[in-house]
């Protein structure tokens, strides 16, 4: 049986929806979370949490668990083969978390779900939201089994193709870049860096190499007509063609793989009456820099606090959330766009690009500025 009433209904039980729910439960509110999937995801694109996000998540009581279950890396680098064009270190950043935490999205979701259940919450599965009606003092969400939940507010955390966003009449315009990306999780015998996230700017194209806590590596590459199910030979070719030269990495297993296109979109508005957008329902962009889930998690914490205040009678925080979070999304999308374009300049000028980056990368200002942008606090 689904409940008939709640203070807040959260549609979508990914990291963002779960974080909103945890924040609301900590404030003592009645929240219902629904998700159309029978169970949480086992595979994902997101695998990094940045320093600012760890700071923001502290009030939820999950930061320590995320760090403990992840892999701490203090270095990020833009490379061309074995040459480091721009070294980016996080160890000197003004934060209690001077590192990035490599952690697969399913693990992040589990940590948040465990916290939600610890607070007495749960996720109702599998239920899809099929209808939405707003009233002056609330909203009604209709589920695919015909049940209707009455709530004071509804949070759309149901992804880029958000049903709730569409039902609320909110638009998310933007572009789909003519870039096909391949994502492959692999195991290697040796030869890939285990102490940094590396962006290889090769003549053949971009290759991102990121170590994961279980000893595997995440590879992301721009590939014309990327295969739907990349195999071992494909992964080995990516590493041989674009990765380090001297160490000759040998791929021994493909754990999982996928392909996708890059969308750069941000909702015109984050609020329509009693409906609020968060995460990919509000913004989506290139994975360059690993910013997507981080931006969504920061949305979630701010939104939970604003909703709690609104339930007490002060809605000003909701409007501030809608304005400020959208502005932050525009900044992050701009950063991801620049990194993506830089990585995918025409092949003929890639040697020139690398030469320029090599010179710029010698400057401490360049290194520190990029570190702060990636970490999530460019003005600090």
TrEMBL record:
It holds the Pfam family FAD_binding_3. Keywords: FAD, Flavoprotein. Residues 6-332 form the FAD-binding domain. InterPro entries: FAD-bd, FAD/NAD-bd_sf, RIFMO-like. Its cofactor is FAD. GO terms for molecular function: FAD binding; oxidoreductase activity, acting on paired donors, with incorporation or reduction of molecular oxygen, NAD(P)H as one donor, and incorporation of one atom of oxygen. PANTHER family: BINDING MONOOXYGENASE, PUTATIVE (JCVI)-RELATED, TRK SYSTEM POTASSIUM UPTAKE PROTEIN. This is 2-polyprenyl-6-methoxyphenol hydroxylase-like FAD-dependent oxidoreductase. It comes from Kribbella pratensis.
């Amino acid at each position: 049986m689904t409940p008939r009433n709640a203070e807040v209904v959260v549609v979508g039980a990914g990291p963002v929806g779960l974080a909103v729910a945890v924040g609301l439960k900590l404030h003592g509110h009645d929240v219902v979370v629904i998700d159309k999937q029978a169970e949480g995801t086992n595979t994902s694109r997101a695998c990094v949490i940045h320093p600012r996000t760890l700071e923001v998540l502290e009030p939820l009581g999950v930061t320590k668990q995320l760090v403990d279950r992840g892999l701490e890396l203090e270095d990020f680098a833009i490379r061309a083969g074995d040459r480091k064009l721009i070294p980016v270190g996080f160890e000197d950043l003004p934060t209690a978390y001077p590192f990035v935490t490599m952690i697969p999205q399913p693990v992040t979701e589990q940590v948040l779900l465990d916290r939600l259940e610890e607070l007495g919450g749960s996720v109702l599965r599998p239920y899809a939201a099929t209808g939405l009606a707003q009233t002056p003092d609330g909203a009604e969400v209709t589920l695919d089994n015909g049940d209707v939940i009455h709530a004071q507010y509804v949070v759309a955390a149901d992804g880029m193709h958000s049903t709730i966003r569409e039902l609320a009449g909110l638009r998310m315009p933007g572009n789909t870049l003519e870039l096909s990306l391949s994502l492959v999780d692999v195991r290697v015998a040796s030869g890939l860096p285990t102490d940094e996230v590396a962006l290889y700017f090769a003549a053949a194209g971009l290759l991102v190499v990121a170590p994961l806590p279980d000893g595997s590596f995440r590879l992301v590459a721009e590939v014309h007509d990327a295969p739907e199910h990349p195999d071992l030979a494909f992964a080995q070719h990516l590493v041989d063609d674009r990765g380090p030269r001297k160490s000759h990495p040998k791929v021994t297993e493909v754990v999982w793989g996928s392909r996708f296109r890059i969308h750069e979109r941000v909702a015109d508005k984050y609020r329509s009456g009693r409906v609020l957008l968060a995460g990919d329902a509000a913004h989506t962009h290139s994975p360059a820099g690993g910013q997507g889930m981080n931006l969504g998690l920061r949305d979630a914490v701010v939104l939970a606090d604003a909703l709690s205040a609104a339930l007490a009678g002060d809605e000003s925080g909701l409007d501030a959330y809608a304005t400020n979070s959208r502005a932050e999304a525009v900044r992050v999308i701009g950063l991801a766009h620049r990194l993506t374009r830089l990585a995918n300049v025409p092949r003929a000028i890639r040697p020139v690009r690398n030469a320029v980056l090599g010179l710029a990368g010698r400057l401490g200002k360049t290194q520190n500025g990029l570190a702060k942008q990636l970490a999530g606090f460019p003005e600090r």
